[in-house]
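TEACHING EXERCISE
Course module: macromolecular assemblies
Task: Read the component lines below, then compare them to the predicted structure of the full complex.
Student: A.B.
Group: 4
Components provided:
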Amino acid sequence: GENVEQHPSTLSVQEGDSAVIKCTYSDSASNYFPWYKQELGKRPQLIIDIRSNVGEKKDQRIAVTLNKTAKHFSLHITETQPEDSAVYFCAASLGFGNEKLTFGTGTRLTIIP
Amino acid sequence: GAGVSQSPSNKVTEKGKDVELRCDPISGHTALYWYRQSLGQGLEFLIYFQGNSAPDKSGLPSDRFSAERTGGSVSTLTIQRTQQEDSAVYLCASSLELAGGYEQYFGPGTRLTVT
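Instructor-supplied answer key:
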C-alpha cells in the first residue's frame, strides 16, 4: 500500500520568513495530494491540494509543488504569521473511486514573533 | 450548511467494554471515511464507504472493529472488547464525489479513553 513520509517533524521560523515542508510517497499511481492544517484540539482543515496533472498551485501565501517523477511534493508558506502555527499533514490518495487518504506523520510549525 | 458532526465528543470506557461512535456526514455527501489519530501522531485510515459499494475495510486494525453506514448517511463505528491501545481520537470525514472533487471535510472527532 501507499506510504507517505513527511519532513521535518518540527519547524520553527521567524515571523515573516518562509516555511517549507516536504513529503514523499511510494505509490506512483497516487494522483491527489492534499495538505491539512490542524490547530491544537481542532479538526484537520484542507488548506491546499494538487492533482497529478499539475506541477504547482498557489493560493495567496501558500503554494504546493509536485514532482511525479521523484514522487515528492512540498508545501511552501511565505510571509509567515503567528496564526500559521499549527500541525500540518500531507496526504496522498489514488482517486478514481479510491479516495482514502494516507497521511504523513505531521510537521509542527511554530512561528516565532 | 452544517458540517460533519460526531458524537460523543468524549468517551471514557473500561477495558473490555464495547463502544459505539457516531458520525453524521454533510448532507448529500456520498463518501464517508473513518480515521484514527493517536496522541501526537498522524491520521490512520480505518474504513471508507462510497455510495452503495462494499466498504473498503482494509484499515481496520482487528476484527474487534466494525462500522456500518445506514441509508447512505449516518455511520457508526463499533469497537468491541476495548483495549488500552484503542485510546485515540476517532475522526470521521465525508466528501462529495464530483469529477476531480476529492476534498474531505472532517468532523471534530471523538476522544476515546480506555482505562
